[in-house]
Each structure stands twice: as structure tokens, then as C-alpha cells.
Write a structure and sequence with these properties.
mainly beta, SH3 type barrels, 39% strand
Length: 83
């Protein structure tokens, strides 16, 4: 996937772009990552919060969806404690 430097609320991020160079927009959100390193978490930022910087798009690995790191045990009850 191709990525380009962008600004998100004052922080440097990498925003996903199509081969043609336009930002990838999915439901009003753009995939972003804070690092260009392999395995970086990919978040979804509101389109209005992204300011694209000038520069060339670069190929980076797809990264890991931020939701993928959440525990599957979240929300499970430990039971009543009576036994």
C-alpha cells in the first residue's frame, strides 16, 4: 500500500493513498499510521482532520489494524464469585 506524509492534529502521520495519489477514504475516514516501520498500527482518522503534505507517496507494509491488538476477553464476566 502507498502512504504519504500528512498532519493529524499537529502530529506527523502517514496517510494511505491510492496508486493515483488521492487519499483513501472509507466511510469518511482515512487510514493513518504514526510510524513508517513494519507492523505499525493503523488507525482511522476523520477526513477533515487530515492535512496532506507535499511529497511523493511511498510503499510501506499494510501495518496492523489498531483494533486487532485488543484483548478478546474484554467484556467477559468473571462470574458471581460464589461457588
Amino acid at each position: 500500500m502507498k502512504w504519504i506524509e500528512a498532519d493529524f492534529k499537529g502530529r506527523k502521520v502517514w496517510a494511505a493513498v491510492h496508486d493515483a495519489g488521492n487519499l483513501v477514504v472509507e466511510g469518511g475516514r482515512i487510514p493513518i499510521r504514526y510510524s513508517d516501520k513494519p507492523g505499525a498500527k493503523v488507525y482511522r482518522a476523520g477526513e477533515s482532520n487530515i492535512v496532506r503534505k507535499n511529497g511523493e507517496a511511498v510503499d510501506l507494509d499494510d501495518g496492523v489494524k489498531a483494533e486487532a491488538g485488543k484483548s478478546k476477553k474484554a467484556g467477559k464476566s468473571k462470574g458471581s464469585g460464589f461457588g
